[in-house]
Design goal:
This protein is of the alpha/beta class. The protein is built from 10 helices and 13 strands. A hairpin with a 4-residue loop joins strand 12 and strand 13.
Length: 357
């Protein structure tokens, strides 16, 4: 005990401290070197360009005797439809119809609209040779329709309905209650224009006097001027309509210059616009759009396709030139026009003979 106490005393006196034994340190371990692993990726196949359901083409194959500006209307209708559905659309003149059809089919068109008189045989042959393509034809004479050939108005615009609508407007516009129409009575369509016009005029103006004119018997400027003077000064005609194909444009223009109100078929010439009381609008683009809608929705189009009031292809558009048509006149006229379109009202004309029944 004394020895231990002496040892402790020595340690205290010398200021020494007792250190604990060192703790063994583990040797450092080198971090393993990581080998980079490339990321695993799945190759993405290229996106295929979607194939349009329809590719539209319109071939302008010449004039349509049934009215001016009709091909422009068809073009506008097809173009608007294509734009609304993001579809390819091409319109081009087709002086060589078979070659134009072949070129458009080679380009991928699967709906071809062809407009122009006298091309029925060409479009029929093309439809028979290309059964996967839908053809829509407007022109006279019309070919027979088939599964892939749709005829737009095989009989053209119905003469009795066109005449009836023109007569409605002319009867309402007349203030002298004397109305004239240039119509040829030598064929069924001419008689139908005449009968339809008279019936429509009398619906709007029961007291109106009607004067029918065949301008083909008035040859020469002097004779034509004499006719115009007689109509305006002696007969007191103040409203005039010329049936399609009747050849009375010179009389329409002369009467308009002398203060007549006129009714036109389709868009009037700019120089006639101030005198136009109403237009019988020819709208083949509306039934065309209905056909394209059906093809887009993969349903069968309603056939036969008529260019009549019910299909929207014949529309009366009162303009009221020189206040010839008042708001009341327009209301009455449009009521009858709408009833004709709905089938509630008939023209009173036998289409087979062109005569009233």
């Amino acid at each position: 005990m004394r020895a231990m106490a002496a040892a402790l005393l020595v340690l205290v006196l010398c200021g020494c401290s007792v250190q604990p034994p060192p703790t063994p340190t583990a040797a450092p371990t080198a971090a393993p070197s990581a080998t980079p692993v490339p990321p695993t990726s799945t190759p993405v196949p290229p996106t295929a360009t979607p194939v349009p359901k329809l590719r539209l083409g319109l071939l302008d194959a010449g004039e349509l005797a049934s009215g001016a500006d009709l091909i422009a209307l068809l073009d506008a209708g097809a173009s608007e439809f294509a734009a609304a559905h993001a579809l390819p659309y091409t319109m081009l003149a087709a002086p060589d119809v078979p070659a134009a059809i072949a070129a458009r089919i080679a380009a991928g068109d699967n709906v071809l609209v062809l407009a122009g008189d006298g091309q029925g045989a060409a479009v029929s042959a093309a439809a028979a040779a290309h059964v996967a393509v839908t053809f829509i034809y407007m022109g006279q004479p019309a070919p027979a329709a088939t599964n892939n050939l749709i005829v737009l108005g095989a009989d053209g615009f119905p003469a009795d309905e066109l005449g009836f609508l023109a007569g409605l407007a002319a009867g309402a516009a007349s203030r002298s209650e004397v109305v004239a129409a240039v119509v040829s009575l030598f064929d069924v369509s001419g008689r139908a224009y005449d009968s339809g016009f008279q019936n429509g005029m009398r619906v709007a103006c029961a007291r109106c006097k009607y004067i029918q004119i065949d301008t083909r018997i008035y040859a020469g400027l002097d004779v034509q001027q004499a006719l115009l003077i007689r109509l305006r000064e002696d007969e007191k005609v103040d409203t005039l309509w010329v049936a399609p194909g009747a050849g009375g444009d010179w009389l329409l223009e002369g009467c308009a210059q002398q203060g007549c109100s006129i009714v036109t078929n389709g868009k009037p010439a700019a120089k006639l616009e101030p005198a136009v009381a109403a237009v019988v609008a020819l709208r083949p683009d509306l039934p065309l759009t209905a056909i394209l809608d059906a093809l887009w929705e993969e349903r069968a189009p309603v056939v036969p396709v008529m260019l009549n009031a019910a299909s929207g292809a014949l529309q009366l558009q009162p303009l009221g030139a020189r206040a010839a048509l008042t708001a009341g006149d327009v209301s009455v006229v449009m009521d009858f026009a709408n009833r004709l379109a709905s089938g509630e009202l008939a023209t009173g004309v036998d289409p087979a003979t062109g005569l009233p029944y």
